[in-house]
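Saturday, quiet lab. Running sequence design on the structure tokens for the scaffold JK sent over.
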């Protein structure tokens, strides 16, 4: 592989105009496609194989035209202190609001609180339920404006009016965080390279790669039903890996120049060596992201595949566009150790010949491996302790900031009708195989109403055919509580008895039941996913490092860092530690998909540093250095680059903590802290300590396996042979000339 990539790098350097033109054309094509693509509608959220999804599908079949997936809004009214919502003046205000809401073109139905028994027992709170024909993301702005204006008009009478539900759902805003992250990345690159031009190359290529990826996602969003979070994730990961991969190759290019090689040769060798590490690092990220499809949640699968596509683009750009741009830059990109005059180039070093920080750190670790190993493992173990109290759930209006009208409506409904009112359960009874369907409906409603934890079970509402009915159940606990989860399972257990006795099927759905099913599905998929992703990457790393213990150490180190990161997420988002600093206004359960998502993404990203750092050690060992010296050599050449890459990745991910979407905020923080733990504790401390303790055993591989495995030559041994042959040919030519 090294020889192939070497030739590719030299070709891109020579044909730089052609290569640059291809990438600019692809960016233009993707941009035109995004601009001309139809506006994407809402993303369908289906969970195949769950009872909640089965019930939802049954509702769409048996209750046609009911807009089961349509947006809803609860307009909540609260009377001033000392007054009642049943006062004539307030009744008139609410009646006027209901009439105004009913005139909307996208409105399916509006319930009058006084006719639907939607007034609290103390008479201080009432609500009107509004149903729409389309989902929240498909509602026209004029419809949302009319809803908000109606609430504002009602407030003029002295009532407190808030709006809950998903009708006001908006595309999440990420603010200026990403710009700050990119700015930090630029500063780190300038410090690392000592050159504005060299620092600008990774940023430019990463932005082009993300531009192509996100524009392609936008162009296909309507066709493939991709949500806004998909492009946010692709941007987050694409920026991070795009900058890192380009950084690796530019850094190696400058090192080759420092050894006296011509620029085209240096570009070829940089792509042949660092490019090999980039390919395998990218493969681990792609495997981890595509592997999310095993969970069988379409939204998660699409997010993973879209992000994997962006990573693949980042790899291709690093291998082709970076050497092309290096060709354009010419002598403006200086050899390693030289700085531009603007940044202090030409000055005499204060301590010439002094070992760099990476060398000094690695030498210390090699001398004290046991102490460093114990300190690193114990530190990550302590950080992982909060993960033992991990609670999973999906965000609802109760997790919104208190400044939002959705959250205030949620609190008003809880105060007036109980905490379970915000998470009603919908029991669907399919009595098509029963002789007395109405009798079955009534029996189920009575049985469910008698269960512990049920405030009320409303009368059955059958369809026109009379073979299916819905029963709305109000729990006495909030939607995200363990008590509500137990109630869902209790209803389903009683439904199994009903089916055995009458043949009627009892299903539980609704947003609360759907959230519970999603959490359970993700929990069940975590271990198989972990085995699949880590197993495939383990095999890949055996091929790369030609070792058993090095990939095993890499996998165990990853598990340490991801558990520590989950512990940090629990501490901030569930316990509330540093919540003010992170902009977390409301603590609660950790998002259900966070563990499996972190396992996938963090594993792929962690292997970036493992591959880049350890391949330099492997390269030194293969070329004759002792194992302990090879560790020091790897750090001498790679520590500065890996440190810069980690800081850049942390900065990019941290930029998304400012998002208004709790899911994006949590993902940004989780990935940033995970990269910090993995890069600076695992890869920079635990890895060299373990390799120093193992010595030559670290690179052991059974002979039979060595014969079977393909030789991918990541360390560039083939390039040395190629260079030696070229030098021999040149010597022969000189001899012929002399003769």
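Result came back. Writing it out in full:
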């Amino acid at each position: 592989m090294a020889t192939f990539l070497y030739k590719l790098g030299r070709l891109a350097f020579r044909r730089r105009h052609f290569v640059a033109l291809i990438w600019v054309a692809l960016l233009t094509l993707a941009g035109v496609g995004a601009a001309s693509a139809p506006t994407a509608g809402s993303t369908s959220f289906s969970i195949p194989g769950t009872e909640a999804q089965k019930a939802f599908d049954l509702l769409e079949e048996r209750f046609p035209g009911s807009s089961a997936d349509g947006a809803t809004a609860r307009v909540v009214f609260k009377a001033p202190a000392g007054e009642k919502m049943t006062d004539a003046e307030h009744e008139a205000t609410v009646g006027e609001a209901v009439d105004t809401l009913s005139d909307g073109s996208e409105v399916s139905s509006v319930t009058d609180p006084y006719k639907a028994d939607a007034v609290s027992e103390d008479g201080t709170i009432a609500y009107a339920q509004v149903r729409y024909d389309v989902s929240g993301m498909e509602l026209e702005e004029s419809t949302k404006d009319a809803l908000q204006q109606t609430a504002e008009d009602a407030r003029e009478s002295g009532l407190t009016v808030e709006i809950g539900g998903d009708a006001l759902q908006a595309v999440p805003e990420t603010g200026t965080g990403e710009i700050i992250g990119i700015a930090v990345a630029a500063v780190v690159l300038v410090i690392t390279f000592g050159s504005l031009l060299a620092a600008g190359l990774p940023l430019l290529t990463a932005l082009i790669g993300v531009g192509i990826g996100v524009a392609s996602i936008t162009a296909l969003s309507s066709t493939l039903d991709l949500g806004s979070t998909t492009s946010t994730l692709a941007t987050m990961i694409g920026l991070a890996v795009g900058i890192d991969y380009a950084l690796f190759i530019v850094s190696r290019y400058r090192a080759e120049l420092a050894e006296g090689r011509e620029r085209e040769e240096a570009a070829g060798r940089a792509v042949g060596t660092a490019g090999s590490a980039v390919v395998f690092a990218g493969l681990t990220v792609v495997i981890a992201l595509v592997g999310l499809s095993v969970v069988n949640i379409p939204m998660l699968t699409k997010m993973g595949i879209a992000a994997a596509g962006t990573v693949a683009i980042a790899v291709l750009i690093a291998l082709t566009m970076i050497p092309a741009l290096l060709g354009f830059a010419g002598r403006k990109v200086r050899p390693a150790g030289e700085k531009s005059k603007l940044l202090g180039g030409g000055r005499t070093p204060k301590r010439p010949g002094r070992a760099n920080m990476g060398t000094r750190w690695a030498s210390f670790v090699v001398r004290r491996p046991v102490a460093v190993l114990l300190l690193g493992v114990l530190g990550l173990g302590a950080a992982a302790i909060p993960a033992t109290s991990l609670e999973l759930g999906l965000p609802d209006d109760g997790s919104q900031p208190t400044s939002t009208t959705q959250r205030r409506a949620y609190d008003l409904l809880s105060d007036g009708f109980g905490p379970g009112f915000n998470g009603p359960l919908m029991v669907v009874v399919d009595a098509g195989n029963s002789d007395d369907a109405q009798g079955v409906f009534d029996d189920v409603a009575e049985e469910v109403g008698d269960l512990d934890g049920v405030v009320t079970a409303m009368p059955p509402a059958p369809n026109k055919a009379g073979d299916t009915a819905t029963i709305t159940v109000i729990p006495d606990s909030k939607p995200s509580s363990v008590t509500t989860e137990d109630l869902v399972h209790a209803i389903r257990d009683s439904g199994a008895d009903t089916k055995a006795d009458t043949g009627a099927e009892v299903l539980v759905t609704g947003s609360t039941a759907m959230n519970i099913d999603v959490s359970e599905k993700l929990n069940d998929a975590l271990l198989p996913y972990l085995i699949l992703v880590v197993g495939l990457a383990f095999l890949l790393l055996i091929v790369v490092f030609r070792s058993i213990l090095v990939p095993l150490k890499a996998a165990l180190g990853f598990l340490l860092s991801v558990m520590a990161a989950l512990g940090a997420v629990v501490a901030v988002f569930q316990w509330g530690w540093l919540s003010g600093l992170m902009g977390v206004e409301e603590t609660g359960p950790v998002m259900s998909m966070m563990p499996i998502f972190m396992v996938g993404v963090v594993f792929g990203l962690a292997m970036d540093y493992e591959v880049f750092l350890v391949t330099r050690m492997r390269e030194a060992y293969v070329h004759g250095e002792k194992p302990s010296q090879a560790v020091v050599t790897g750090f001498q050449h790679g520590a500065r680059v890996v440190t810069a890459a980690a800081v850049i990745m942390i900065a990019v991910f941290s930029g998304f903590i400012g998002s208004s979407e709790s899911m994006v905020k949590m993902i940004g923080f989780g990935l940033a802290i995970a990269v910090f733990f993995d890069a600076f504790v695992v890869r920079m401390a635990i890895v060299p300590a373990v390799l120093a303790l193992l010595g030559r055993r670290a690179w052991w591989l059974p002979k039979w396996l060595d014969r079977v495995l393909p030789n991918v030559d990541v360390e560039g041994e083939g390039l040395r042979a190629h260079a030696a042959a070229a030098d021999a040919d040149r010597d022969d030519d000189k001899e012929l000339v002399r003769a």
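Notes for JK: The chain is about 65% helix and 5% strand. Confidence is low (pLDDT under 50) at residues 346-350. Ask whether to fix the surface positions before the next round.
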